Automatic annotation (TrEMBL):
One of its GO terms (cellular component) is endoplasmic reticulum membrane. One of its GO terms (molecular function) is GTP binding. Residues 51-301 form the GB1/RHD3-type G domain. InterPro entries: G_GB1_RHD3_dom, Guanylate-bd/ATL_C, Guanylate-bd_C_sf, Guanylate-bd_N, P-loop_NTPase. Coiled coil: none annotated. This is GB1/RHD3-type G domain-containing protein. Keywords: Endoplasmic reticulum, GTP-binding, Hydrolase, Magnesium, Membrane, Nucleotide-binding, Transmembrane, Transmembrane helix. It catalyses: GTP + H2O = GDP + phosphate + H(+). It is a multi-pass membrane protein. It is found in: Endoplasmic reticulum membrane. PANTHER family: GUANYLATE BINDING PROTEIN.
Length: 591
């Protein structure tokens, strides 16, 4: 073997060895099933796969029939074709290479429990150019001595409902009880069919292992189709129950095929030290594998998962896992309508999630991150535009469950987006420079007014004014310091909110005449103190007053607005006279 081939084989083995089977559904002692949501999220929400449609291939059937053994050959093909980019060649590997992948053991006792997914998704491109992700699912065998009928039904039904290709692994032949079990587990799909008007499941692949009658029907797909046609044929002479079994299977799957696989060899089934070397496997078996695996996993044969006519992305599959496991964990084996309800809810949830993503993306371009502050009215208008686009996205998706369920989820979506808009409004408001500095400005003005009041009281020897001024000064300084501390450290957030409320109340204080304490008055292009007008009637123009009076009435309103709430009406005359040096008569004219 050339050095290039050696390195290729080593790379292939290392790639498979870095992955493993991850148990995502685990049976418990009380015969319920536990979903490992964290493991699923790591697998399905990876940035490189979460938005790709899923091709999910699962193998189900009786225990100890070689399901995990078969899946490991699928892994070799996927690794060779999609990881190494080699669509041809000997994907089976070298003759002395041990079989790695999903764990398997010989013997009579069950080995796999619950449901396992391979930890490494395989990214592929279909023959039509669509980028997909391939997942392999291994399931515990049915009808072992530790499982109840409900356990068997749950595992088989989960694998059927979640996979795009279900391989029904059978031993030696297609028996009548195999068909009846399949009918039992797919009965749920028949009810879903009545609701949606389409076949609920996609591809069913009968795989008959250890086929011993090659003289009747040859190995491979041709003999398989011959056998399948014979087994699923509905005849008038059949009992009604037997006819119904076959009709139900045909109604539940879009495509039903069959493949006959020979026995892998005596050493495989009897040698306890067998580790999967190709040299120990019968050549006929290997030859059939080379036909079977590409029929399922070649780019032109990939089948993306669909539910309700919509392709399921990897991130959507997480919702379906959670919904189905919750339903199957109910007290009794759920009826088909309950499973239909779970499917419809997961379907509507996925549509809602995609609509929310549309809204978040659009709004992020408008007001997210470091985008500048927007006036509230403009933000409201943009919100309604983005909301309508998100709802259009939701309405355009095909959804199961009927109009009533779609309306319910649409209402929940609107509420969710309105709540999200409230958060965006708060984020946008945090960029408002006026609101950002209004609270410290109030406390700073209070501090200044208190200081001026103390100075005036000391000047005129009015100790009451001095005490009030000092109290206001100290209180304002403390509140300002605490407010700065809450903003800088994030501690005492409730106290910071209360201080903002206090500042807002001071700004919005109403005098008996209906004037706002912090509200400047505009008259003849001049800002005046609220009390200059006395709360009644317009002021005369500045020309009608002395220059000093005009100066008094055109002072910055903020100083007066903050001190006026703390001193009496008589103190106004003293303070303004001191500040403006105008005569009492001029001041009375302003009042």
């Amino acid at each position: 073997m050339s050095s290039t081939n050696i390195y290729s084989q080593l790379g292939k083995m290392a790639s498979l060895r870095s992955g493993s089977g991850v148990q995502v559904v685990t049976p418990s002692e009380d015969h319920t099933f536990l979903l490992d949501e964290e493991a699923l999220q790591k697998l399905l929400l990876r940035p490189d796969v979460k938005d790709r449609p899923v091709v999910l291939l699962s193998v189900a059937g009786a225990y100890r029939k070689g399901k995990s053994f078969l899946l490991d050959f699928f892994l070799r093909y996927l690794d060779h074709t999609y990881n190494n980019g080699d669509g041809g060649g000997e994907w089976l590997g070298t003759e002395d290479e041990a079989l790695k992948g999903f764990p398997w053991l010989g013997g009579s006792e069950r080995h796999t429990t619950g449901i396992h997914l391979w930890s490494q998704p395989f990214k592929a491109t279909t023959s039509s150019g669509e980028k997909v992700v391939i997942l392999l699912m291994d399931t515990q065998g049915t009808f072992d001595s530790n499982s109840t009928v409900k356990d068997n039904a749950t595992v088989f039904a989960l694998s059927t409902m979640l996979s795009s290709v279900l391989i029904y692994n059978l031993s030696q032949n297609i028996e009548e009880d195999d068909l009846q079990h399949l009918q039992l587990f797919t009965e749920y799909g028949r009810v879903a069919l009545d609701e949606t008007g389409g076949k609920p499941f996609q591809r069913l692949q009968f795989l008959v292992r250890d086929w011993s009658f090659a003289y009747d029907h040859p190995y491979g797909p041709v003999g398989g189709e011959q056998l399948l046609k014979k087994r699923l044929l509905v005849r008038d002479t059949q009992h009604e129950e037997l006819q119904k079994v076959r009709q139900d299977i045909a109604r539940c799957f879009e495509e039903v095929t069959c493949f006959l696989l020979p026995h892998p060899g005596l050493k495989v089934s009897t040698d306890p030290h067998f580790i999967g070397k190709l040299s120990d496997i019968d050549p006929e078996f290997k030859s059939c594998l080379k036909k079977l695996v590409p029929m399922l996993l070649a780019p032109e044969n990939l089948v993306p998962k669909q539910i309700g006519g919509q392709k399921v992305k990897a991130r959507d599959l997480l919702n379906y896992f959670k919904s189905y496991v919750d339903v199957f964990n109910s007290e009794e084996l759920p009826n088909p309508m309950t499973i239909l309800q779970a499917t419809a809810e997961a379907n509507n949830t996925s549509a809602s999630s995609e609509a929310r993503n549309v809204y978040e993306t659009l709004m992020d371009e408008i007001c997210g991150g470091t985008k500048p502050y927007l006036p509230q009215q403009v933000l409201e208008q943009e919100h309604h535009k983005c909301l309508n686009k998100a709802l259009h996205s939701f309405d355009s998706k095909k959804k199961m469950g009927g109009e009533e369920m779609a309306t319910k989820f649409k209402q929940l979506l609107v509420k969710d987006l309105e709540d999200l808009f409230d958060q965006l409004k708060a984020h946008n408001e945090s960029k408002n420079m006026y609101r950002m500095f209004s609270t410290p400005a109030v406390f700073a003005a209070l501090f200044l007014c208190g200081y001026l009041l103390s100075v005036l009281g000391d000047t005129f020897r009015v100790q009451t004014l001095v005490a009030i001024g000092q109290a206001v000064t100290i209180g304002a300084a403390v509140m300002l310091g605490v407010w700065i501390y809450t903003r800088m450290t994030g501690n005492l957030r409730e106290v910071g909110i209360q201080l903002d409320d206090i500042a807002n109340k001071i700004r919005s204080f109403q005098w008996p005449g209906g004037r706002q304490c912090g509200g400047p008055r505009r008259h003849h292009n001049t800002l005046c103190f609220p009390f200059c007008a006395g709360g009644a009637g317009p002021l005369p123009p500045p020309s009608a007053r002395s220059a000093a009076a005009a100066a008094a009435c055109s002072m910055p309103f903020s100083i007066h607005a903050w001190y006026v709430g703390f001193i009496s009406w008589k103190t106004h005359t003293i303070l303004i006279t001191s500040l403006t040096k105008v005569s009492p008569m001029t001041l009375l004219y302003c009042l």
